[in-house]
Amino acid sequence: MSSSSSWRSRYEEDPDGDEDENILTELQESQWSSRDSILFVIDCSPSMLKPSEDGEIPFYTAIKCAMTVQLNKIISSESDLVGIVLYGTAKSKNSNNFENIYVLQELDAPDVQKIQQLESIDDKSLDFDEAFGTSNGKYTLGEMFWTATNLFGSHAQRVGSKRLFLFTNEDDPHAGDISLRSASKVRAKDLQQFGIKIELFDVDKPGEKFDRKNFYRDILMDSMDDEDEDGAPPEGSSATLQELLQRVQRKEVKKRAMFSVPFKLANGLEIGVRGYNLVMPQKKGNHRNVYTMGETVREVQTVSSWICADTTQYLTPADLEYYWEFGGTKVIFTKEEVASMKTFSDPGLTLLGFKPKDALLMHHNIGHALFLYPDERSYEGSTRAFSALLTAMADMDKIAICSFTQRATYSTRLVALVPQLEIIGSNGQEQPPGLQLIPLPWADDIRPLPIETGFEAPDELKDAALNVISLLNMKKGFLPDNYENPSLQKHYKVLQATALNQRDMDIDDKTLPKTEQMHARAGEHIRHYKDVAESIEIQEADLGPSPPTSATTTKRASQTSSDGQSSSKRARSAPPTDDAGLLADMRAKYDSNELKLATVASLKAFLKSVNVKPGSVKGDLIAQVETYFEDN
Amino acid sequence: MASKEATIYILDVGPTLKAKREGCTISRHEETKQVLLALLANKVHMNRKTVYVSVVLVGSKNTNNDLATLDENGADYQFVDVLQPLGIATLDLMKGVQDDVELGDTMGDCMDGLIVSLDMMTKFCKKLKYQKKIYIITDATAALNTEGLEHITPTLKEDGIELNVIGTDFDGDRESKPKTTTQAENEEFFKTLCEETSGNIFSLEEATEQLSEFHTKKVKPTAVYRGTLDLGDPESHPDASLSIPVHMYPATMVMKLSTAKKYSKLSESVSADELPDGHTGNVNLSRAYKLKVTADMADGDGDGEDVEVPADSLEKAYMYGKTIVPIRAVDLEAYKLRTAKSLTILGFFKAHFFRREWLLSNIYSVFSAPGDSKALVELSGLLFGLEEKASMALCRYVRVEDAEPKLGILWHHIGIDHKCLYFGQVAFSEDIRRYVFASLSDIQTASGKKVEKHKLLATPESIEACKEFISALNLKPSEEEEYLRPEETFNPAVQRHKQLVEFRALNPDRNKPLPPLNPILEAQLRPIPELEVNAQPMADNLIRIWDIKKVEQPLKGKRGYQATLEEDKDKDGISAQLSGAGGAGSAASGGSLFEGLTGNKRHKSESVFGTATSGSVNHRGPGGSALGAGAASDLAASGMIPFEMSAVREVGTSDPVKDFQAMVKIATIQSQQGVRVAGAGFVTVALAVDQMKAMVFKLISTSFGDQLYEKAIDCLKSLREFLSGADPSLLTAETETERKETAKERVDTWNTFIREVKQTSLNTSTSPLRTDFWELIVKHKRELGLLTIDEVPAGANGVSEEEADKFLLEASEDATAAPAEEGDAPDEDDLLALMD
């Protein structure tokens, strides 16, 4: 459905959900998930237009931020609203006819023209002085807030969050004018009364730190609501584009809880927690169906209805029941009964106990994690309790095991909660405090390892490997930030190119190995490693029995070996692994004169195992086997 | 491809099985039947066409088998009754065993049964490859005719038939039981026989225990990737690169429950005779594609009626901002990212850098290609190297050509029997949300000072108490002892599904209560009782320290109207909303609107944005409103109301009249269908009317000049038309009396409301004055005045025409004569008296 909620609705493709449920929940999601609205408000005072210490011009940095956000929104959440207001401009454009306020873009869904407009400002093809000009610091902040309020208000569509991103380097506006100052504050507070949240993106002036105490602290204190929202850790003001961009991106998507449930720690002890999706595979947006044969391209909606095959009547949900086939019979259940088969408790977490952290095995993973944070609004005191639990678990290096039902219709399953302490970096919070919720597999979900081997690499081989591993070590470790999803980027690029009639559809695939660098660094060592490996003799027993292969698998295996470059060379050293069984079997068949009952495949396999080149006809094969047993 | 199976169950139904075992409430016969049913159920659940079963009764009243002879030479194979020859396991067979298998009168000979079974087996399976098994379930009381044993044993062996015997009084591995000499001899005999055919003998307890144990469904390991694990570029640098043939298998994979199919309840409304196949209950899905009506089109002519388009004329499109970008399927394919099948290492890194929550998917195991010793060696060095370096490898994985590349990590697993790499998919940059959360340990005052004590902060005392609590709830007291290991916890849903399907199949009476969930599975989801008891003192301590209070509030998402709704969701009439405190939510919002007119800017603007008052039916979170939304969407899905309407749960500013009409329609349909969804989001007529009323006030109060007057007038017209009862189909009451009652309430509602409007508009103490709005109403006289007797359904309190005229023309009413402002419903009689 709407991809405004792409992140959320995608979540609904939860493996637990029935198809039906998905349709429903997805509808709900698009219905209830609200769209975000962000209004960029950019100060155009002269100091914003002068390069700062690193050469960046704050005004253009802000424009770049707005552009990045628009570009992101246009592909990932196209129904979110974005608008841009400049203030401190010589020209004015707003419905109240306030001076020095220029509404560059009304709050609306992002579109191509808007981005192009920003591009033209950014690359200076649209002259700033000509188009807007600066009023040399003359403006009334209160009127800017008033304008912003109107912009948010005039939008008829319902929005879920309203946020104002304020870019300025003036930490003390209207310094000399007490009445203007207090009027601004009143306006700002009014604004927040309407649920509009102000996010300040403060930029330092050259040689002067932006000091929130001078003015903005009063305003911003108000904007902290009781949601866990942002009592956010204090962020330093920033100077560079990179820092600012990072900050904008962190705020770009409105933080929204997936669920809020009670967490039962013991009898009589419950706290509230909210769950968030901080990590989840981002997929391409859902496609829509359109009808292109009319005058204009028009979107098409699919109307599905259920029809009773026996009576040909249309069915309402109340007319539906559900069945499974069992031994040729339809076994019928009501919707509620079906739901009761997988949901064994009301939504919530129930603590079962604690284990040392190492009891959580890496390979016991089945899906992405969720993130838990206390919910003071459902249980007063949740925060202090959660915080104590988190600290204690982290100190003791423990994880919690819980049973978990996320929503009324979701499967109940076991999960591990892993403590995560807050980490503050130079540019704000790098890791939020909370519990990572890792869904655990059931025994039914764990597959036994199919191949056994006792072979252990001898030291010389291991040492050779260590050299290679050291040389190709990535010092900073793996950081997801460094790897964009190439298929997603390609998809976006194709969309953009098609929409804008561009030809360039190439992307930079950051997941390709940098093989030349690798060879330069470690080529020799890899060669050495291979040589060592070549020299190692291997006991047949170490190969272990292979998993059973079926007709289809053998077929695929042969395909692989034909495009792999190794098979013929290796055939020699690679006899089938279950020789003993095969031998006994053939011997038995030979003895009982039943070789004709053996399959061609087994005859061939047997012959290969004893280094006889198998013939092509079954008769020949049997003869070959007989010869072999006569000789042995 | 799974192999074929043939299994024959021989059930002894000799008269001796009537006796109960010591300490049992049911007879041996019932017990053995239960075991047989459980065995059969397992086969039925497999739902495979190549799994064949047969049930043979021994000691039955009937004789029914191919070998039976009864002539002058004597009687052979008597009382052996083949209930079902080898065939597919069906529910009918199970029902037959459950309901129709009775004890016989004569002792049967299990050896007769066995020979009959062998004969069936040989004829059925011929020389084809089958997994062949025979089970004998007996009390071993009857004498066995062991004549011909010298033929039986070799046949069993040669044909590879596994013989298992379940004896009611067998010793099992625990205790020996009192038994007769024959029983003991028979047990010994079966034991020998079973051993020779690599089968087993079981006591009844053992069998029951085994059957009730949970087994994971065996899935044959199938490689999802057979290719090479590369390091470097094997094409340009064949000597200096690694290219190890590997196979990748799932190590975890969520076992999905089979989804239920839909069944139509309406099917049974017609007689089965009229249907060619009887009642199938099948449900067909029909899809229609309709052009979406966009806002600008709806404003234009013709209301944009539904236009259906054929499915094959559709193209795919994606949104690029507001722009729809149609892309032909061929182009989509042509522009797709080209990739080659590969698993290639990008580099290595220290394992401690990796954060567990970056794992996105299930896990795979990576082995060197089976039988490839060179590959084994090359992979082995790598994985021992990773172990020693405590490192992982970052890799790029493309399952098949042109598949989307995935980023993954490889780490080692070195066990005694198994040595492999594990592969787990990890997050791309796009997959990570960087939300900021408030610190839990750092709270600052306005002046930037760190607070040491705060109600949100954990105290050292509470942390210590928490540690004691954690220690008391230890699920892994030692290396060997660990509760709730994933390998040993079975998914209750899998078992529950099996259990209930079996139960309902054998007990078609829908009123029969379903059996409880297996207690062992139930226990997995609850704290371990002993631990819980041990930890309770620590928990009590925490309860004292933390002093948690559940916040009792009108729940999130249920404010204003929704809260009201909660209170009287059972009444469809509007009276509930109007009378007394029940209307608190609406009254409050109305109230603030009035205040808005008295010059309090904040309140006035508040209503503009609908943040906290009249618009607060806004949905505060998906959770709260889920139920109601579900109901409406259901209706939409069933095609009863247009899809876009199903969403309407609030009278919005953009097109209030349309919203109102949609809500009324939804409410009416829901009520006619008897849909009663409790909770937020459920639409009632009362809710719609109340919101519409609030909307009118909102429009009047926020109108800039006469900007919004027209809209307000439209709202009024629409509201009046509805309340006048002009469309009788929107009256939902069942009985005539109720119908009248509803009509009467509605008329009263309007007449009260329009008086309020008048009073508000003419209130001279507000600024700006809205007298111009009232003048507009007067212009529309008949369309907007009080509802008169002539206009309303019989029985409702319409006013006289004179009164209606007077009401419109009288410029201003004495404030004291005006209806109460508090939103309390005025007493009708008083009101009328005043008007007179």
TrEMBL record, chain A:
UniProt keyword list: ATP-binding, Chromosome, DNA damage, DNA recombination, DNA repair, DNA-binding, Helicase, Hydrolase, Nucleotide-binding, Nucleus, Telomere
Species of provenance: Mortierella alpina
Pfam families attached to this UniProt entry: Ku (PF02735), Ku_C (PF03730), Ku_N (PF03731)
Protein name: ATP-dependent DNA helicase II subunit 1
Chain's gene name: XRCC6
Major subcellular location class: nucleus
SUPFAM superfamilies named in the record: SPOC domain-like (SSF100939), vWA-like (SSF53300)
Catalysed conversion reaction: ATP + H2O = ADP + phosphate + H(+)
Broad class of enzyme this protein falls into: hydrolase
Catalytic activity, EC: 3.6.4.12
Compositionally skewed regions (Low complexity) per UniProt: 558-568
Region (Disordered): 1-22, 540-585
GO biological process entries: DNA recombination; double-strand break repair via nonhomologous end joining; telomere maintenance
Residues of the Ku domain: 312-456
GO CC terms, sorted: chromosome, telomeric region; Ku70:Ku80 complex
Family statement drawn from the similarity comment of this UniProt entry: Belongs to the ku70 family.
Subcellular location: Chromosome, Telomere; Nucleus
From TrEMBL, chain B:
Family, as annotated: Belongs to the ku80 family.
Keyword ATP-binding tagged: yes
One Pfam family matching this protein: Ku
Annotated compartments: Chromosome, Telomere; Nucleus
UniProt entry keywords in alphabetical sequence: ATP-binding, Chromosome, DNA damage, DNA recombination, DNA repair, DNA-binding, Helicase, Hydrolase, Nucleotide-binding, Nucleus, Telomere
Domain VWFA as annotated: residue spans: 6-219
UniProt feature, compositional bias: Acidic residues: 821-836
Gene Ontology biological-process entries: DNA recombination; double-strand break repair via nonhomologous end joining; telomere maintenance
Superkingdom field: Eukaryota
Keyword Methyltransferase: no
Location of region: Disordered: 811-836
InterPro entries reported in the protein's UniProt record: DNA_bd_Ku70/Ku80, Ku80, Ku_C_sf, Ku_PK_bind, SPOC-like_C_dom_sf, VWF_A, vWFA_dom_sf
Family annotation (PROSITE patterns): VWFA
Organism this protein belongs to: Mortierella alpina (Oleaginous fungus)
GO annotations of cellular component type: chromosome, telomeric region; Ku70:Ku80 complex
Gene3D superfamilies per the UniProt record, alphabetical: 1.10.1600.10, 2.40.290.10, Ku, C-terminal domain (1.25.40.240), von Willebrand factor, type A domain (3.40.50.410)
Designated name of the protein: ATP-dependent DNA helicase II subunit 2
GO molecular function: ATP binding; damaged DNA binding; double-stranded DNA binding; helicase activity; hydrolase activity; telomeric DNA binding
CDD domains the record matches: KU80
Gene, per the UniProt record: KU80
